[in-house]
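Hey everyone, long-time lurker, first post.

I ran two proteins through the pipeline my lab uses and got sequence/structure pairs for each. Pasting them in order. The first:
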Amino acid sequence: MEDHNTPGENMPTPGENTPTPGKNTPAPEDTNATPLSTTPAESFSESNEPSQDQMVPPTRYSSAPPQLRNTLDLSPVNNKIDLLFAEAKKILIGQSELIELMVICLLCDGHILLEGVPGIAKTLSANVMAKTIDSEFSRIQFTPDLMPADIIGTSVFNMKESEFVFKPGPIFSNVVLIDEINRAPAKTQSALFEVMEEKQISFDGETYQMDIPFIVIATQNPIEQEGTYRLPEAQLDRFLMKINMKYPTPSEEVEILRRFKDQVGKLDLSSINKILDKEGIIGIREILKKIHVEDQMLQYISDIIQETRNHPKLYLGGSPRASLAILKTSKMTAALAGRDFVIPDDIQYVVPHVLNHRLILTPEAEMESLSTKQIIDEILKSLEVPR
């Protein structure tokens, strides 16, 4: 299983006990800065300016003191994410980076591919994330005999009305968990192409729109090969991130045993409270649009993608969709760091997760036992970092 630590010396991994990207990069001083407030915001608006007596130390995502903070009020984002982290950690232990990456994908309107060996909480993580959102949830277990109609729905003859009526399938939900996605053949996988990219289903001359939010969380096991199918590249490119899950550390495993030593039967998730709803997600996405990206950061993203297309060890590089994915996720990473501007650390943090499933090695690179992670590290180290 690939090691997906963040590349580069100045690319720390955000998490509970680790610094956030850009921790050591002070924000530019702004005399008109608006400090954060711990008081929950009534709405996602920049006009809710806290008074001087409401100024508090920055949250754990903050990268600068309150007096250096920018004018964009990011406290609604940080407050919600802090609450979401707290709810998720009621069940998930030692998965701070996983939770943060899943939140980034959710708020960036992107889909997630979770890959890992059996028993490391891939399905549980998806269920926990769905529980924190006030929305509909459905699960589809992919099997070799699954048909496209089992996913998107089919027409059923209504005897009373003497006409065919469309019956929506389980894909018509807000959070859709697809378990063991690589167990279904290409014909079934193709049923996901339209809905994952365009958020709609076309059936029998009619178009059905998905509600907000719509996110697919898929899991796959890289070890088992019998009865599995390689996902089409066109489908892999539709996942915003591929997150490679790893075993817990010894101390985390002890904590897992301690917390669930009295657990009998099915794990109870009823203690998880719903933090985000449709309006909240839309509000955060509106704030995300206001995160500033300098031209030199756009050039940096372009240089990374161009390097993947011209690298001698890569048969397939990143697409324009990959460039946009890096841009969106780096803006969300900056927002979680309490900044309204993107820095190179944000880009470097998300690049491995955005690109690792989009790149294809040449046969020669595979014979050398190279991994896409190693190629991404090499590219990031070879490029000049904008100042």
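...and the second, right after it:
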Amino acid sequence: MRTARLYLFASVPALISVLGCSTGSDAPGQPAVVAPSITVQPAAQAIIVGQNASFSVTATGASISYQWRRSTDGGANFSDVAGATNATLSLTAVPLADNAHQFRVVVSNSAGSATSNAASLTVNQAPMIPAFTTHPANATVTAPNTATFNAAATGIPSPTLQWQASTNGGGSFADIAGATTSSYTTLATSTGDSGNQYRVVATNGSGSTTSTVAMLTVNPAAPPKAWGTAGLIETNNAGSATSPQIAMDASGNALSVWSQYDGARNNIWANRYTAGTGWGTPTLIETDNAGYADEPKISMNANGNALSVWAQHDGTRYNIWANRYTAGAGWGTAELIETDNTGDASEAKIAIDPNGNALAVWSQDDGTRIQHLGQSLHSR
């Protein structure tokens, strides 16, 4: 007796279909494709200029594609990076110009897209050991004045500064507390500080550099000014000398005038003081012997030119006379500078400007009252 057998031949998809299952395609009755989801965001990177950098993202989803994008304006706008269509963006030999750029990636498939967070790129300059662009210079001061030393250094990162001092001729140096800026000013100096040396050390993560040494010279303070010994500046011993006046120029030279009795009447004399040398020989600067000459006044400008005025009796009344002193030449000839013969003239005053122009004023009796008169002299 034969046994009958039944055989079934079908393709797998057909079999699955017969059984009521799905192949997973987008065909009707099958599950839809799911939009991408980013599970690991790109991270910020910091590199040295010229190094490589990379940004990576991890995303889930079927048949996804990538497009990296770059922002050069702080994240306001992004544009595609050409050819950057993988999960990892690789940048080679990054220039300094890429510093602060931001990168993000758009992950897409047929069901949608997802955009990652933006990641920043920091590009630092290569470290550089400090180098001085300005070294401290030697300083000379007069005690007790302070001295200031200056220096400047560059480096990456920017270096810190520390000033040092040596009080043993450079045998050893010690840090100066708090002296950590580009300028150092000493305390009030004394002559004992002369010969001290100063330098500054610049330091960063790449190392330290020491400046050249600067020397401090401290001169002693000038002794306080004091009067010297009185000296006789007139040598005419015939009679008393009175009414001295003095004026000085910008160089310390001076002229003095006075009235001196010669046994018969008063005359006007002058003497010159030369800075660094002393007094010269007295000179008679008026030659009218009619009567007494009194009340001399003198004015001198910065250049050493001068004018003297005085009152002189002509036998009837007092007149105003003047004489000019020219630096390098000496006194000129006395001149009568007022011609009003009504009454006595007295109390003359004189002023001279840098160009040698002058004004003189005095009091004069007109027979009724005392008036003030003036006269001008212009340089020729």
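Reply from user beta_strand_b:
Welcome! Quick read of the second one: Residues 1-25 have pLDDT under 50 and may be disordered. The two ends are 166 Å apart (CA to CA).
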